[in-house]
Amino acid sequence: MSEPSNADRNGFEDMRRPAPATAARRITTDAEAIEAATALAARLSAGAARRDRERLLPWDEIEAYSASGLGAITVPKEFGGPELSLVTLVRMFEILCAADPSAGQIPQNHFGVLALLRDLGSPEQKQRFYADILKGERIGNAGPERGRNMISHVTTRITATADGLRLTGRRFYSTGALFAHWIPTRAIDDEGRAVQVWARFDAPGVKVIDDWSSFGQRTTASGTVEFEDVPVGPGDVLPVWRAADRPGLWGPISQIVQAAIDAGIARAAIDDAIGFVRDRARPWMDSGLDRASDDPTIIHEVGHLETEFQAAQALLHHAAALLDELSAVPVTAESSARASVAVAEAKILTTEIALEASEKLFDLAGSSATRAAHGLDRHWRNARVHTLHDPVRWKYHLIGSYHLNGAYPARHQWN
Amino acid sequence: MSEPSNADRNGFEDMRRPAPATAARRITTDAEAIEAATALAARLSAGAARRDRERLLPWDEIEAYSASGLGAITVPKEFGGPELSLVTLVRMFEILCAADPSAGQIPQNHFGVLALLRDLGSPEQKQRFYADILKGERIGNAGPERGRNMISHVTTRITATADGLRLTGRRFYSTGALFAHWIPTRAIDDEGRAVQVWARFDAPGVKVIDDWSSFGQRTTASGTVEFEDVPVGPGDVLPVWRAADRPGLWGPISQIVQAAIDAGIARAAIDDAIGFVRDRARPWMDSGLDRASDDPTIIHEVGHLETEFQAAQALLHHAAALLDELSAVPVTAESSARASVAVAEAKILTTEIALEASEKLFDLAGSSATRAAHGLDRHWRNARVHTLHDPVRWKYHLIGSYHLNGAYPARHQWN
Amino acid sequence: MAEPARPTLIESDAQALEAARSLAADFTRDASRRDAERLLPWNELERYGASGLWGATVPRAYGGAEISTVTLARVIATIAAADGSLAQIPQNHFYALEVLRVGGSQEQKRFFFDRVLAGDRLGNALAEIGQRDFTRRTRLVRDPAGWYVEGQKFYCTGAIYAQWIPTLVVADEEAGETASYLAFVPRSAEGVTVIDDWDGFGQRVTGSGSVRFERVRVEPEWVVPFKASFDRPTTIGPHAQIMHAAIDLGIGFGAFEETLRFVRERSRPWLDSGVEKACEDPLTLHQVGHVRLRLRAAEALVERAAGFVDAAQRAPDEDSVARASIAVAQARILTTKAGLLAAEKLFELSGTSATQSEDNLDRYWRNVRTHTLHDPVRWKYQAVGNFHLNGKRPPRHGAI
Amino acid sequence: MAEPARPTLIESDAQALEAARSLAADFTRDASRRDAERLLPWNELERYGASGLWGATVPRAYGGAEISTVTLARVIATIAAADGSLAQIPQNHFYALEVLRVGGSQEQKRFFFDRVLAGDRLGNALAEIGQRDFTRRTRLVRDPAGWYVEGQKFYCTGAIYAQWIPTLVVADEEAGETASYLAFVPRSAEGVTVIDDWDGFGQRVTGSGSVRFERVRVEPEWVVPFKASFDRPTTIGPHAQIMHAAIDLGIGFGAFEETLRFVRERSRPWLDSGVEKACEDPLTLHQVGHVRLRLRAAEALVERAAGFVDAAQRAPDEDSVARASIAVAQARILTTKAGLLAAEKLFELSGTSATQSEDNLDRYWRNVRTHTLHDPVRWKYQAVGNFHLNGKRPPRHGAI
Residue A288: is it exposed, middle or buried by C-beta count within 10 angstroms (0-12/13-18/19+)? Predict the structure, then answer.
């Protein structure tokens, strides 16, 4: 791919649109994927604090990501992909998000949507969409609607007209949509059924607005998408309504990516805490010590954070391995429930350690770590904003209900 | 009062019944009450571990308590009592229960019932019952009924017969009943209304069975009371059903005594932890220290426990002072709710510190503290058993509902 | 700077609390904007000063209301719930007044207490950076021609807004000893440069910048003993610390109030909760109760500790001061934790829609996170544990 | 003691797990009675031994299944959920086998591994009390007439049930040095007195009493180097510790299962909850989820750490052993907390009726509280923190 010139970076950044995907690298093994992610992470890491501060969208970084081939690692073998494990996918997200969780989050819906495609797509749909992905195209997502009512409430509609199907609606929190070649959205069809409609980013009537203004994950461009009479082909519609009846794994797969992002944030916060204590913090005057890193109260906290992090990561990898195992055989209501419960476990612990580590970072590093130049508050802002999609308090409830009453979790993208 | 001979202590202990109350000391000031409690605590403390281990009922100690006059400190001035503050009552329970929470718990219902009498009794009832209390008589309580259904479900009945009122029923968890001169119980009258009926311990048909077998608070004799056609006078019935309509403070007063007991348990556990670390614990080999008491990880935990304890105690005393303030003026639905919320705050924190301190005691003291000779596990067993009457998880809910939605707590003896 | 109008004279604790509540209602309105745009609160400080609260701790003997530390803590927490920065700015003012009360001469007290009742504000220039130890380099030079202050200070909260900058200086004494003093340097003196270079992510408008002193002339009567006030037991340390506790507590209560408002008015119920309104979610109610309770516990310890400080002010000795320091350290442990908890749970209970920049609700977390780092709470546990386990009294300095 | 019947030969990890599950179902039946009446589990130990599990870690080269540490930890946790004491008794057996594997001669390994496969059980006599330092006083005396052990040991879990008591002894070496050894003393040897004086409130039937050695004759070939195995990096420490972690984890899971049973079958709903059945209480469901998750987190760290131990056994060096020790220390932090949590919440969620002595449900707390005190978890944090913050490897001894 061609690098955009530096001139592009000024002022026009918000209007930049995805470059046509041409020839992404083909990754074939887990090791290659991890290596590619590690290399990309080094690049993401460099400008992360500045991008956060100045709210610069990571366009170059995202194009580099696509060129690396990482976007296609879950494409099934029968459709020409490497069909790498979810364990590898999870590790990829951890690595990228430890470097920059905003840039790293952008592909989250890409993989959630691909899991849905795998569960619900027709062979033709799979053939077509997977080919786009292998080329290096990106999938975004048009998020939920807004309002005080239930988060699952949907007013976006797809309607059959004389000229074919037409999509109309307005969605928020659409992570990745601005960077995407395809923008799938939830909608209701003429029969009142829930479907997912894939719209091209440059189709007439599609408008992506970067109005994401949260204090964290600032450069994800998780903004608004408007569809106004967007023409859609019948092959661009996935029957989501079947998921309510048919057990699948796209919910847990979508969730586990979220957990991996939070694990990455936690790791970065702990690493920065350790680095700051080693290199910059001064010992507390009552400690009688020469170096902050010898302070037993600091050592205790590092011990605690590392232990909770390792536990979160271990459950994250357990859950990913379980999803790999369960997706190799037909999914049942029971196995789908097990998957949701395992992912809920990982999700709670990654949320908690991301929040705790990014807050304790300052206890360990001290006042001077609050100076703007360090940009270290971005870890907490990122963790706090990214862990609010679905409240962990109800994850605990879900786990309790499963074990005490054998209740299966409701099936939706957050379980 | 006459001390029972030592011969009484063997074998016949369970059949021992209350001595007739003759002339209890008259306490007139807060300072006298605290002094009396402190003196009694020294006596309770001596045999507490042994009584727990051998399940010896604290008969002598309870008679000494009655003789001290502490049982009458809340009797209103107009009925000849000192009408001491609830702050003092709470401090009395803390002091006694730090020494022996089983013996100290025995009078808990005595004061809860006296608060109910003050709210709901007729002038004649007050005159009569307060006189008994000033003499040194004790009130026990026939606890709830048993079964999987709601804890408030009642099958105990008081029925009008040709020969007068008759009480029939079976109650459990009746703390203090074995030691009591009066045993009040909840019952339903012929009109289906909730009442409290006061039965004399030696009335025909009253049977108190010491079948309390919990692993904690072992010598409270919180056993079973059976009433079989017990004759009852009309003046022995209090109209509890009015409390549901009329706001009162007997619920919060009953609860705050519970919280004070738990504060006492917590204090004792922390004191024993500190004593053991100072006098017996050996330093951990990796610490490089000569004394366990210089170990910064131990010092940290002591700092934590003392801080949480002080917070719990501060809220306990705040709540007691609030109850004193609110009981000086007519009680409204609003003030009753405020009282319940304040007591719930104290109750949660005293529960949590009692459990935590009695568990951490061993972390600080080490393996050798588990030897039976020390009897130190009784703190946790006492804390755990005594904090189960009403679950703290719903106390949090109560506080949240009050602040978020302005919801007033339900009025019953646990709120 | 022009002579400010003479403030209202606060005459009682009740009046002080009432003034604080009324100011808080005023300050809360634009707190978010001041933080977002980093607008220094010059006008607010004028109104704050005019209220008389800055003179409310002045001893009765010197014409003030001598409000109790309990009341002072409540005043500060009340302001902090509205605006964390505005609550922190006078912390050093009250600190300097306590140093003056404890160590100043009659003459000095008469002069500076009167200036404060007349509306003068005191800033501070205490901390230095760049050294890994905690020794100070800013010096008081006693030349025959006059006394001069020379040096550079950081984290000088309030200095930019002050008429006087009490500055911690070291001076050579006889016999090769050194001693420290608090020199009340006029903000407008020749050679004083106040630089608004504070760029922490929280408490953004405290004006906690740096101050440079280039051969700044000071009069001997402006120099108040400092070290001497730590050589004997005094309440300077716990008095300073309880104000920090009150700030964190207040920010926490501010965040809690925002939580209640947001959940009631704007949050949507969670998909799986089965309730119609977010405020009916039983798990939310449980957690609201939890946050509230931790704030209440912290508040109870602040009030308890303030009582100990008042007692130690009346009768300072080794024991009373140690007890006050320990009680305040315990308060700071819980205010730190509760403040952070409330600021974080605000979002967990409100949901993603509470994160929009226009609402700027993250300022509570940024403020409390920044301010709770003043000195490490980890070492409070050591002080408290050592006191209770080993009967050791805490070290005597301004941070305990 | 009669020669026991030769146990089943375990041949795979799967077989070991299956054997553990079947034994657990057996052991769970009378676990409460054994605790309440302090009945030593002689018969259960016979069945446990007959299962072949006590020989399952013997290396393949010596005829065993050489099950992985992951499997060993699962086996122990499975037994611990049924009976904490029965899980702890073989801990020292496996410990001695690891000391033997790491430090024994070919000859010694051949002999003792074979005895174990034939059904011999190993106890332990390691700890001493009465000294405030951690140095040992029990001595190996090498007389021309023969070798003798002389001394007194405490907390000798399993000694009473064992055929051999591996005993930590100190011996004088040349040049005034001393070295320590593990002497495998026959339980039936002249001069060995095992006293069942363990009276801790938990793990009551472990037989963790004291052992007295009065001029006990030992053969040189029963004496295995000990100190030498800590002078170089070996897995003895983390291997010993992960079994402790597995015991606490298992007790926690046992308590959790009791919680589920009790809440489903016997608890009554709380007055204000508005639900018909206790198991529908939303706050109970939340907390059940919390307990379960903390157990799962602990379990995940145990399995992770066991993997590190396996790796370090295959290739022991400074790094691999340090990593294993640190991973195991992390596992112990979480198993300690989760085990205690589960044992305490059992009652909070079940209610007062779960406290009756006849149910004896407090044994979970008594067991886990007692067993988690083996060595202080507070110092695990220091080891983990020092490793990650400062790159310091943990000290090498049996408790890390």
Answer: exposed
pLDDT at D164: 97
pLDDT in tens, B58-74: 999 999 999 999 999 99
Token pair in block for residue A235: 């092959």
D1 shares contact with chain B (CB less than 8 Å)? no
Per residue in D75-114, pLDDT (tens digit) is 999 999 999 999 999 999 999 999 999 999 999 999 999 9
Closest CA to B178 of B38, B317, B15: B15
Closest partner residue to D288 (CB to CB) among A277, A348, A404 is A404
pLDDT of residue B1 exceeding 60: no
Each residue's pLDDT tens digit, C261-292: 999 999 999 988 989 999 999 999 999 999 99
Q: Hunting for tokens 């019935």 — which residue is that?
A: B237
What residues in C contact A392, CB-CB < 8 Å? 348
| Closest-CA residue of chain B to C258 | B404
The torsion angle over the Cα atoms of residues C67, C68, C73 and C75, rounded to 10 degrees, is: -30
CB contact under 8 A, D389 and A277: yes
Q: What is the pLDDT of residue A200?
A: 96
Rounded to 10°, the helix D42-50/D13-37 angle is 180
- Across A246-250, B38-42, B243-247, B370-374, least confident range: B243-247
- pLDDT given at position D158: 92
CA distance B315 to D61: 66
Decide if pLDDT at B389 tops 90.
no
The interface residues of chain D toward chain B in range 364-383, judged by CB-CB distance below 8 A, are: 365-366, 369-370, 373-379, 381-383
Chain C contacts of A397, Cβ < 8 Å?
272, 283
Q: Is the predicted pLDDT of residue D140 greater than 50, yes or no? A: yes
Q: Are C266 and C95 in contact (CB under 8 A)?
A: no
- Confidence at residue C2, expressed as pLDDT on a 0 to 100 scale: 54
Joined together, the tokens standing for residue B327 give 């009981």
Beta strands in chain C (DSSP E): 139-143, 146-156, 164-172, 178-186, 192-195, 209-218, 223-225
How far is the alpha carbon of B415 from chain D, nearest alpha carbon, in Å?
Answer: 10
Chain B residues closer than 8 Å to A297 by CB: 296, 300
Q: Which residues of A touch D263 (CB under 8 A)?
A: 404
Rounded-to-integer distance, Cα A362 and Cα B351, Å: 31
Set of chain B residues whose Cβ sits within 8 Å of the Cβ of A300: 297, 300
For a pLDDT cut of 70, what percent of chain B falls above it?
A: 94
| Nearest partner of D44 among D73, D79, D92, judged by Cα | D79
- Which of C378, C380, C387, C396 to probe by mutation at the A interface, max A CB count within 10 Å? C378
Query: Out of C344, C369, C395, whose CB is closest to A362?
Result: C369
